[in-house]
Amino acid sequence: MIHRCILVDEQDNVVGHESKYNCHLMEKIESENLLHRAFSVFLFNSKFELLLQQRSATKVTFPLVWTNTCCSHPLYRESELIQENYLGVRNAAQRKLLDELGIPAEDVPVDQFTPLGRMLYKAPSDGKWGEHELDYLLFIVRDVKLQPNPDEVADVKYVNREQLKELISKADAGKEGLKLSPWFRLVVDNFLMGWWDHVEKGTLNEAVDMETIHKLK
């Protein structure tokens, strides 16, 4: 089965669909300016620790790279195209949390995701593959059951702020072969610590800005 990603313009209007394969070919991204809709989930437990995953070695883009809880794409299908209340993206996030991390749907009800913002970025992975995404940033605070899928995920861990800062320092210094995904790094550098404050205070709704599409490099 060919998974078809949702193609959008830079204002996030749906303009068509394309195979996941083509959406990640740098040649296609550059020649046809293919931009697809994506999401990044940041899941915190009740201790306000953030769940990170290390992408599996078999991933086409950014294998063995550490990143936020889950990053993927809504598909070009009715349930994941719903614009109202960003329900399509929420449905996709719930689907992929089960697929990648074995988190049951009842642990992550779609109405518990808070879409905080959108960002647009482009990031080559190697010479052939890369990302060009309009990425919805979804936050959720829930204690969940985990059963990571080894085809998708090499490792997982919860981190507090200090542990995340330590991880970033190691990645910056090239220690232990640690690498962070470019989209995760963009969120860390531009938004995460301020939003983490809101997670801890229970005031996430105050941080919501779904009007702006942040163009980040």
Automatic annotation (TrEMBL):
The keyword Isomerase applies. GO terms for biological process: chlorophyll biosynthetic process; isopentenyl diphosphate biosynthetic process. SUPFAM superfamilies: Nudix (SSF55811). Pathway: Porphyrin-containing compound metabolism; chlorophyll biosynthesis; Isoprenoid biosynthesis; dimethylallyl diphosphate biosynthesis; dimethylallyl diphosphate from isopentenyl diphosphate: step 1/1. CDD domains: NUDIX_IPP_Isomerase. GO terms for molecular function: isopentenyl-diphosphate delta-isomerase activity. It holds the Pfam family NUDIX. Signal peptide: none annotated. It comes from the Eukaryota. It is an enzyme of class 5 (isomerase). Its EC number is 5.3.3.2. PROSITE patterns: NUDIX. InterPro entries: IsopentenylPP_isomerase_typ1, NUDIX_hydrolase-like_dom_sf, NUDIX_hydrolase_dom. Residues 34-186 form the Nudix hydrolase domain. Keywords: Chlorophyll biosynthesis, Isomerase, Isoprene biosynthesis. GO terms for cellular component: cytosol. Belongs to the IPP isomerase type 1 family. Catalyzes the 1,3-allylic rearrangement of the homoallylic substrate isopentenyl (IPP) to its highly electrophilic allylic isomer, dimethylallyl diphosphate (DMAPP). This is isopentenyl-diphosphate Delta-isomerase. The gene is gb21147.
